[in-house]
Amino acid sequence: MFVILIYDTAVERNPRVLKTCRKYLHWTQRSVFQGELSAAQYRALMAALSGAIDPGYDSIRTYTVRSPEMVETDTLGVDLGGPGDII
Amino acid sequence: MFVILIYDTAVERNPRVLKTCRKYLHWTQRSVFQGELSAAQYRALMAALSGAIDPGYDSIRTYTVRSPEMVETDTLGVDLGGPGDII
């Protein structure tokens, strides 16, 4: 499955959230990660993130589609990575 | 088409970017909008945003799929809006 993850967490929790996301996904914009994961990897990522955030303050949102071919990506302005090093 | 839009713009340009995004999409997280648009609406949105950002500093990223049924959404922590008022 292809996962897009956007995090909005307090500054003091960002390092742990970023480290966790980087284990599983590629960083594509300041607050955005994306990548292909198995269902098991996705569950492991979400479980790790659940333990890293304050659910009353932070927010992590994911959008999941079956395969990356179903998604078109567009960037205006600064692009942190081309499609080559993302997918 | 179903559009997910993430903006990362300088504070002084945020009001114009937000106003433009709100015309077309629903706000779902601090820096995330989503919604269903026609191809013409999508082009109009991107053209308006192109004129509102500094392409050397700001970044706007979109992910597009053919229909919202192809996407599953998940939130950890704070959720700004349920599926009911998003799609």
Proportion in helices of chain A: 25-40%
Unreliable segments of 5+ consecutive residues of chain A = 82-87
Total DSSP E strands of chain A: 5
Main sheet properties of chain A: 4 strands, antiparallel
Largest interface, by Cβ-Cβ below 8 angstroms: which chains and how many residues each?
A-B, 38 and 37 residues
The pLDDT mean of chain A sits at 90
CATH class of chain A: Alpha Beta
- Number of DSSP helices of chain A? 2
Shape category of chain A: globular
- Output the structural class of chain A: alpha+beta
Strand order of the largest sheet of chain A: 2-3-1-4
What is the domain tally of chain A?
Answer: 1
State the CATH topology of chain A.
Answer: Alpha-Beta Plaits
Assembly state of the chains shown:
homodimer
Report Rg of chain A: 13 Å
GO biological process, one term (chains A, B): maintenance of CRISPR repeat elements
Protein name (chains A, B): CRISPR-associated endoribonuclease Cas2
Subunit structure (chains A, B): Homodimer, forms a heterotetramer with a Cas1 homodimer.
Keywords (chains A, B): Antiviral defense, Endonuclease, Hydrolase, Magnesium, Metal-binding, Nuclease
